[in-house]
Amino acid sequence: MSTEAESPRFPEGFRWGTSTSAYQVEGAVDADGRGESIWDRFCRRPGAIENGDTGEVAADQYRRRDEDLALMAELGTNAHRFSLAWPRILPEGGGRIEKRGLDHYDRFIDGLLERGITPLPTLYHWDLPQALEDRGGWRNRDTAHRFAEYAAVCFDAFGDRVRDWITINEPWIVGLLGHQLGLHAPGEKDLRSSVTVMHHLLLAHGLAVGELRAEARRPDARAGIAYSLFPHTPADPGSAADRAAAHASDGYVNRWFLDPVHGRGYPADMRAHWEGVVGELDFVQDGDLDTIAAGSDFIGVNYYTRRIVSARPGDGPWPWKVEPGRDEVERTDLGWEIVPDDLTALLLRLHRDYPGVPLMITENGAIYGDEPGEDGEVHDTRRIAFLHSHLSAVHRAMAEGAPVEGYYHWSLIDNFEWAMGYWPRFGLVHLDRETQRRTVKDSGRWYARVAGSGVLPPAAGTP
Ligand code: FCB
Fold first, then answer.
1. Rg (Cα) of the chain, in Å, rounded?
2. Is the CB of 169 under 6 A from ligand 1?
3. Which of 102-111, 184-193, 272-281, 450-459 has the lowest mean pLDDT?
4. 170 is catalytic
5. 278-333, pLDDT tens digit by residue?
6. Complete edge-to-edge strand list for the sheet that includes strand 321-323
7. Which atom of ligand 1 is nearest the CA belonging to 126?
8. What is the residue-averaged pLDDT of the chain?
9. Which three-class secondary structure state does DSSP give residue 32?
10. Which domains does the chain have, with CATH numbers?
11. What is the pTM of this model?
12. Would you say the CB of residue 228 lies under 6 angstroms from ligand 1?
């Protein structure tokens, strides 16, 4: 093998990033006039969160802003994805602006830029102001308009320093876990709500893009959605029925969002499924699909694992069944299969199906529970191997032409993992929740060296 093949080099300007979201790291839920969010409310529901955990303190980043900025400087990454908390900026969801909330993010963004770190803010990473939920939340079309109002406030406040924006994080997961299975805030179980909400989230994205394009704003600004994309594998690749089931489920998880945003409207096969299950989609109004297709400048890829699907009857009203992973495939501590090759295939598929649209890996990571050893260090070699295999996968896709601009590892630091609470550790940095002490894991140091050199070492060992 040539050295070139052994040591893939990423292009100059590649974004080496870390990823977080407000409710998962900030804590300080009552600070500086922050309004209540649906996650504050949901966490108080008995049994909703493992161990009765809440995001009340999380990694206390709102108060430890400077410490975490220093941490990122130590890692030497050049990009950071984080989210703005809507209830800190517009505590009632719309109307009155809370300047102290804006000030926090002002200082955070300035702090990133001073350290050579390009900010990539997400506007909505699931912490809807409770005041809007009280008026129907995402089931109510008006919430999409309130989102555009909030987006405009953020564009005005930070647009001089921020070029790229993520509007919405994972619309499918919001619909599925928040409104269909009741596992995330607001904890609803209703299929029709779920599909309504997903439409309003896409509408919100389109309306926000419209705001971003308004004349007074910077002409080079860009916006995209971070999707939870799952490559699909037919349980038996030799079976036409399983292949059809995999394609159908891909419509539910992936195409339902990507197609309309990129100007193709809702995919007909999935639209027929949805209508069969919940009735007419009359919340899709004239002109909505034009608004949704207003223009996304990049595709944010959140990738963790694949979905194996067969044509057996499913648990829900779908003509497919999600099958367990394969025994021979390695897994993370949560049991998710580790399949980096599917990331290569996914990136190439996006490149083929939505040509010319830049791609960013906005999330990728793994739960490994490694704790500090006697030497005080966290030797999380499995995370290093995970990073290595997935960065190789990204590089292979780029070598075949996929226009990938950056990779944002989930996560910078161990944090509040929604309904699972704090036990899952995704961080490059270990968090001791008792003391709030941060310890850079071996994986963090390894990532720092790769980010610094732009070169992936031949094996998962030390560069
Ligand atoms: C994604 C979420 C992110 C985090 C990771 C593990 O679905 O966007 O907040 O929870 O999963």
1. 21
2. yes
3. 450-459
4. yes
5. 999 999 999 999 999 988 999 999 999 999 999 998 878 888 999 999 999 999 99
6. 232-234, 307-310, 321-323
7. 9
8. 96
9. helix
10. 7-453 (3.20.20.80)
11. 0.97
12. yes
